[in-house]
Fold Anoctamin.
Amino acid sequence: MNGNDVLEMDSVSENEEGETVIGMIEEEIVYPEEFLPTYHSIKEGANVAKAVEVEFNGKKDTLFFNDGVRRIDFILVYEDEDKKDFEKRHTYARRKRRREFFEGSLMKMGMELEATQSVVDEKLMFVKVHMPWDVLCTYAEVLHIKLPIQPNDLSSRPSIWRYLSCITKAFNPDENLIHKETEYFTAPFERDRQEYFYIKDRDLFFTPSMRSRMAFYILSRALYEIRGNIKKFGITKLLDSGVYKAAYPLHDCRFNVKSIEDDCPNERYLLFQEWAHPKSFYKMQPLDLIRKYYGEKIGIYFAWLGFYTMMLFVAAVVGLGCFIYGYKTQETSTWSKEVCDPDIGGQIVMCPQCDKHCKFWRLNSTCEASKKLCIFDNFGTLVFAVFMSIWVTLFLEFWKRYQAELEYEWDTVEFLEQEEPPRPEYEAKCIYEQKNPITGIKEKVPYSTCGRCMRLSVGMGTVMFWILLILASVVAITIYRLAAFFAFSTKLRTEDLKELEPLKEYVTPQMATSVTASLINFVIIMILNMLYERVAIWITDFELPRTRTEYENSLTLKMFLFQFVNYYSSCFYIAFAKGKAVGYPGQPVYLLGKYRNEECDPGGCLIELTTQLSIIMGGKAIWNNIQEVLFPWLKNLYARHCSGQSIASDKGCPRWEQDYHLQPTPKIGLFYEYLEMVIQFGFVTLFVASFPLAPVLALVNNLFEIRVDAWKITTQFRRMVPEKASTIGAWQPILQGIAILAVATNAMIIAFTSDMIPRLVYYWSFSVYPYDKSYNHTMEGYINSSLSIFNISDFTEQSRPLSPAYNITTCRYRDFRNPPGHPREYEYTVYYWHVIAAKMAFIIVVEHIVYFTKFCLSYIIPDVPYAVKEQMKREKYLTQVILHETNLKLVTKRLKPPEDDIQEGTIQKLSAEELDFD
């Protein structure tokens, strides 16, 4: 018999032992050579365990096959085409052929399968997958899974928090429900040395998350079709083509009802009660149980999120203190008093801020805006910006230490990228040969050197195109600002509109323009995010990264570059571009030769930057929570009620069918959760000088975010396939880059966006009478000194306002220029250059001090705690002794040579039996 024989078997038959065997398809199939033994065994009716069809035994919470012995490690779901009337029979016949070939491949690889019909929908079939002990041992060695060799015998050092245990106990999960795990020294599993591992019970030696991870590894590499020399494999392709409707590991119980099965650990129920339930919002996270149930990749995310939230508490307290300080001093600020004073601000006539249709206006019309600006633009903001620069360094350094502890405790210290298996999508495209520079062996690769360069070039070009598209949207928003400011100016400055009179005191044209532009910008950000998401995934798939880690790092970099420009570009524009090149009323600067460049409020652009940040941060948090909570809940509700199911019938379904009706897990895992938090981290650090309440808002959001994410993955989604991870991946260098950039941005915001430096220059120099040493420093007269004078007769025809001047000959504008009649009229004054010099000196001094402090802190704080280093050395020593030196019998069996033989110059040789190794 050859590999092209035709199987002519009934769909279901029985072998000699009476086991039910699903027959193969009745058409020609091309089988691989390694599959032929399995083919013959099926043809001859041998005893095989392939998709045995059984009826549901009524045990809805069971996690085992019908025999109650073999544990379910994975579930495959497909729709039985034989029970449907299809028009495209050829398509569904091909699906059936691929599915049966795939299941045969799984059987060849040692898996055991059992099929059960759905309780609710007779067209659905659930294939339960079990991994026997020998298969588990084989793939545990392939995947370098670390397993216990002996209990940890090192005494742990007492924590400094033990004296507060009576207080902290209330914030820890209930120890009666979630017991502390026993600590073990571990080593990579070796199948031939099983006796040296700490195996008390074979059924419990490999945890369910380990078993699911190994099962998914096999499913991702099992063949489902061969055409000539092309081999097609992987469950991912079968899911995309509709051969299977779903593939997932099982939850161990319902989240809100404890299972009564004796072998069920009820870990999902415990996670919901002590972690995801709203009543547990104040408790610490049970990270060990999260890692045990969902894997290290999920565990490290929640560990990072919890640590970040805890550190935010300190920043939020300081930021709230700065906000309260500014709120208390807004009424006593000298320069805001001058703006609101009818005899000072009320007598200052400001020049129109747009051409022709804008009118002259009084400075005291911005009284309320000036008071609000004092809340954020004060000396406390400077202190807080320096504090946050130090805070971010401490956060990153302490996180490295905490991450090192988790790496050791969770056995990911030696999880290296070269040990990570290639992605199935990568292996499927390997058609070229290339010499490995390390091993010297020729290996299969999916592209040549030129092909790789071409793929990377296409990816980089596409990313740059989308970034330019974002910048184009920023230009469009800027043009809207100019047009909106003109419209609001003509409305809010019109004294005849009595219906707008109540708004004039509180709403300025700048504020109205900023709020509406921020809302429009937020909508554009959300739309571009949805469009670019698919583009970034397509580009990364096109590049064909080798491993899962490389894939995620590549996608992370692309998405973050886009999101960085998308979210922060408008903030950078307001902070560093708006109002910086506007000229003066007689010679304004025009954008695109048509639109007059936008000016800041007389108090500066800081209040607009604060408005922009608050709208984007708040809107982003609300939208993300809607996406994460409401959408999955509505989808599950629809699946249960609108598709012919109800919660009542769901209670009678077995465990695997209940999980099927939950939402499928995202293909890129927790990528968007990381992205959301890193973007938030950027808002908290990059622009914190303009918005001290940013850490407070971030803290409140994160307290909800932890529980929302926990509730979502515990109750609304199928169980994720556990994955290994030692760090937060590419997000770590991104956070470090943001921390470095934050020092420069905050220093520049204080220097160029805030009005603090001009005030300090005036306070320490120009406010003092030169011959009166007893005169105290004061801010009186600052407003008058910060406004230049313009002669209205110097307006050009293009900029001359149409409204009458009401017997005034001059108006004021925000700048430091010489008055009309001066030999160098409308040129910058000496005071302007003093202010510029002070701003540059401030940036240089602050940056150097902060960067030096960051460097010192990074050097002083070790990345790995001393206690963890000791435990790692102890574990390596035990691994060497137990797994290697025990086999070197040459050391233990060597006999001391007799003295006579030594004197005669002979050496006693060991026998062949003594030289044998195990």
